[in-house]
Write a structure and sequence with these properties.
Length: 811
């Protein structure tokens, strides 16, 4: 009714964009007549106009038309009108939902070029290092032709796009142009420092690298050691993956904390002796595992203890329960892989490896002990930030993905980003068939194999999506047994991701992939580079057949897999094969479905297609998505409190770095005046020299604020745990946490300044670094704790016995 009265909101929005699209198209012929040098000179002209007061919006049509012409000449690709619309949406700081195959990578060049003209640096955020390098080489040609520099940040190295770097042969230049959508030509990437890569007009990199560099920049002791500029404009590719799927895990920079690492070998020996239900309970919905009273008693017997709480402390028991979670809830080749003697996490949404990321709270160490690899020391947090708060530091933020609308509410609530669905260039003709539901997994996989064999016999390419490496390899063995030639893609061979996915559209190809198949490289019918004759054969065989072997918790992931078929008007079919034993149905939809199928005596190899069952599955997915949204919002609510503290500390730190010698000396003298220590300071300055004293003071100030900030991070973890208990007293834990956190932060600021002065006055005459400041334990309100009980913070004496509350935080 409202749509009939007010009209479709998106249609009205695109009507407003149409004049800009028409203006860009009108300039096309003019720019086609320019030489390459004249094209490049236009960039200088635009910068001059901006310097004279013009706005980015005022030059949008010309800048977009120029970038389109540069892409046509260097890539052989001309932006469609819908891509121009997508570019405007991104420039306006919104999320553009563009279906797979609609050319998001090319679309981004338009707003990236326009905003880079401001000279403040534009970041293009990708989901992995491979895509960052690929896009830097592929799209770097466009920016280079327009006189802009392009950098690339990877996990252990950084580059600048430079076509002259190795004087690439003509064959390699042709290869870059023809295979640039999946092949990376390293000859165009010149190694450079991270600072140089960030100083480029445009920088490609992953969310992890941008985040870790932000944290590291706020830990340096010299201004010149900072690598990033002030955050200005970022476009996030696969924005739902980065801002939603990865938002539950904060980025953490940590240092080794040897204290409890030795416990995990004991845990790995004890846990296998415990029995499910009798000794511990598992809640798969919340991914929780807890010891029963009988389980605690059994552990005490095994370890020869009378009372584990008194003899080892609360912290020890916490780590024991983490070891229990590792055993009961986390599986090899589903949640993680063992690579080069290390545990590497698999992203549950993308299926990709996450090198450098570790589970916290002792869980990672417990899994290392379980798998028999070297147990790394437990970590002490030095700095941390969530992706939500990291990307909110940018003045303007935009994103693009094929699946934004199912999470539009979260994008709006958390990031204030509107989601706009961009029309497809050609009509979508893909057929999405109803789910096939089987009684058990054996019947499902039997049907999957038969379907693959039949499609393969007709020459139709098949892409099979699996949820885990384990199922991925199992299906591969079944196909091997049947003599079906296939390619396997999972986290273990992700280096070949682009190459494998790029050829998944070839005649007769069978590709089995984890969730990573839903993103990245386009699947062109007939193979890549395109072969018109092969493409025609594949179209006649029915196009690409997408087969899902399990529903994911998030509908977006299922939609991404479906979206691999039917690009640019191609024919294609998608269908999901699921069973009542799949995790989603077993955990969230209960046993009702399986019981119903057994009651109806449905054979295991016979599928049923029921609207009621499909609706039940979608209800389960919606319920989980809501639960995950609540979890992310809960994390953000708590981190937002800490983020205010982080902003103040980092601002203070930056002031310490940026002040010149005279201003910093004035700050120290003011501290001394407030502490009635001007005379002492003056004497010390006379002994060691004015310049030496100021230099030492700056170093001491930075060391002191870092030390107490790290203490504050650990303290806030304890405060968070303690305030949760107040929910039992009908108090809101978040409100209590905010009150307690703000009280502790005020104490922190006072403690920092007092310790800076104290350490400075204690400096030796040779201006050596000040001794490590000793923290004063701030008081925390843990609620009602008996004075003789172990302190809830988990502190222990050297022999491992817990410190009593009255001797710790109860003083």
């Amino acid at each position: 009714m409202l749509t009939r009265i007010f009209g479709d909101e998106n249609k009205n929005y695109f009507k407003k964009l149409q004049p800009a699209v028409d203006a860009i198209n009108a300039l096309e012929k003019d720019f086609q007549g320019l030489s390459d040098e004249q094209l490049k000179a236009k960039t200088g002209e635009f910068k001059q106009r901006l310097g004279n007061g013009a706005s980015l919006d005022g030059i949008l049509s010309e800048a977009f038309a120029l970038a389109r012409e540069a892409a046509r000449r260097n890539l052989g690709q001309r932006h469609f009108d819908v891509q121009l619309m997508g570019g405007i949406v991104l420039h306006q700081g919104k999320i553009a939902e563009m279906k797979t195959g609609e050319g998001k990578t090319l679309t981004a060049t338009l707003p990236v070029y326009l905003n880079a003209l401001a000279g403040l640096g534009v970041h293009l955020v990708t989901v992995n290092d491979y895509l960052a390098r690929r896009d830097c080489v592929w799209m770097g040609q466009v920016y280079f032709a327009l006189g802009l520099s392009t950098g690339c940040i990877n996990h252990d190295q950084s580059f600048l796009y430079d076509p002259e770097y190795k004087k690439a042969q003509e064959t390699k230049d042709t290869m870059r142009d023809n295979l640039g959508s999946f092949h990376i030509s390293q000859d165009f990437l010149r190694p450079c420092s991270r600072k140089d890569a960030y100083a480029a007009d445009i920088t490609y990199g992953t969310n992890n690298e941008f985040g870790f560099d932000y944290l590291r920049d706020n830990m340096v002791y010299r201004l010149e050691d900072q690598v990033q500029r002030e955050p200005y404009f970022a476009i996030i590719d696969e924005v739902d993956s980065i801002l939603i799927d990865e938002a539950r895990t904060p980025l953490i920079i940590s240092a080794p904390d040897e204290e409890s690492s030795k416990w995990y070998q004991d845990f790995a020996r004890i846990i296998p002796q415990l029995k499910p239900e009798d000794d511990y309970k598992v809640d798969e919905k919340d991914r929780a595992a807890t010891l029963t009273e009988g389980g605690v008693a059994k552990v005490e017997r095994i370890m020869g203890m009378d009372n584990i709480y008194e003899e080892k402390g609360v912290k020890y028991l916490h780590h024991l329960e983490q070891a229990l979670r590792a055993q009961a809830l986390y599986r090899l080749d589903r949640d993680y892989v063992v690579r080069d003697g290390e545990i590497v996490i698999i992203d549950e949404f993308t299926g990709r490896l996450m090198p450098g990321r570790r589970w916290s709270g002792g869980l990672h160490q417990a899994i290392e002990a379980k798998e028999g690899v070297k147990v790394q020391p437990e970590s002490l947090t030095l700095a941390s930030i969530t992706f939500q708060n990291l990307f909110r530091t940018y003045k303007k933020l935009a994103g693009m993905t094929g699946t934004a609308l199912t999470s539009a509410e979260e994008f709006d609530t958390v990031y204030h980003l509107d989601s706009i669905p961009i029309p497809t260039n050609k009509k979508l003709v893909r057929a999405d068939l109803p789910d096939r539901i089987y009684k058990n997994e054996r019947g499902k996989f039997s049907a999957v194999i038969n379907e693959i064999k039949e499609r393969n016999r007709l020459g139709q390419p098949v892409l099979v999506g699996t949820r885990s490496v384990e199922k991925n390899e199992y299906l591969g063995k079944l196909l091997e047994r049947e003599g079906v030639k296939h390619e396997i893609l999972n986290a273990k061979n992700h280096e070949r991701e682009g190459e494998i996915i790029a050829q998944a559209g070839r005649y007769g190809a069978v590709t089995i992939a984890t969730n990573m198949a839903g993103r990245g490289v386009d699947i062109i019918l007939g193979g890549n580079p395109p072969d018109p004759e092969e493409g025609r054969r594949v179209c006649e065989a029915g196009g690409l057949f997408i087969m899902g072997t399990e529903r994911h918790e998030a509908r977006r992931i299922d939609n991404q897999l479906r979206g691999r078929g039917g690009r640019q008007g191609d024919p294609g079919t998608t269908q999901f094969f699921i069973s009542a034993e799949d995790d989603l149905l077993r955990i969230f939809a209960g046993d009702q479905m399986k019981k119903l199928m057994e009651m109806l005596k449905v054979p295991e190899d016979q599928p049923i297609e029921s609207g009621m069952l499909t609706k039940r599955i979608e209800e389960a997915q919606t319920k989980i998505e809501g639960s995950n949204f609540d979890a992310r919002k809960h994390l953000l609510d708590y981190d937002s409190v800490l983020n205010k503290h982080r902003e103040v500390v980092y601002k203070k730190r930056r002031e310490f770095l940026e002040k010149n010698s005279e201003d910093f000396r004035a700050y120290i003298l003011d501290l001394a005046a407030r502490g009635n220590a001007v005379e002492q300071y003056s004497q010390k300055e006379a002994q060691v020299g004015k310049d030496n004293m100021t230099q030492a003071a700056r170093f001491i100030a930075l060391k002191t604020i870092d030390f107490f900030w790290q203490e504050h991070l650990e303290l806030m973890d304890n405060v968070r745990d303690a305030t949760r208990l107040r929910a039992y007293g009908q108090q809101d834990p978040l409100v209590e946490y905010k009150n307690e956190a703000n009280k502790q932060f005020r104490a922190l600021l006072e403690t920092v300044e007092a310790n800076i002065l104290q350490n400075l006055l204690n400096i030796s005459n040779n201006a050596a670094a000040a001794p490590q400041p000793q923290p004063k334990k701030p008081a925390i309100n843990y609620g009602k704790v008996d004075r003789n009980d172990p302190c809830p913070c988990g502190a222990k004496k050297e022999d491992g016995r817990p410190i009593k509350y009255k001797h710790c935080h109860g003083k």
